[in-house]
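User: quick one, fold this
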Amino acid sequence: MPEQFSSGDHVVLRLPASGAYLSVLRTAAAGVASRLNFTIDEIEDLKIAIDEACAMLLPRGVEGADLTCRFKLGTDVLDIAVSLATVDSALPSRDTFAWTVLSALAGEVDAAVEDGEVTIRLSKQRDALVEEVGV
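Assistant:
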């Protein structure tokens, strides 16, 4: 029988800030979301949202910096924070197509800058209707 997660569990993944490693990040996100019984569609949305967040950060990353992704598991929500030290420490623009896609796929989205590191936070809620009907 699989081990149960505790609400509030944290998973932290640090990898080179390169597009070559995004598949590792997507796979980790899918694994964590599946532990929360997210649907296949919700998991796919999450993977695309993470790609969008990384696409906003990676071109501005400091050479040699690591991309850090933090997952916080809730009872029916997954909070994700993707962080990278950037050359300009500027927040991503919220009036772009990428931000619109990110917001549509992830639900709640925010960004912050602290100590030269830009963080994009996503919060994806599991669909309550799926739980009720037992799908």
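User: anything notable?
Assistant: Residues 95 and 111 are 13 Å apart (CA to CA).
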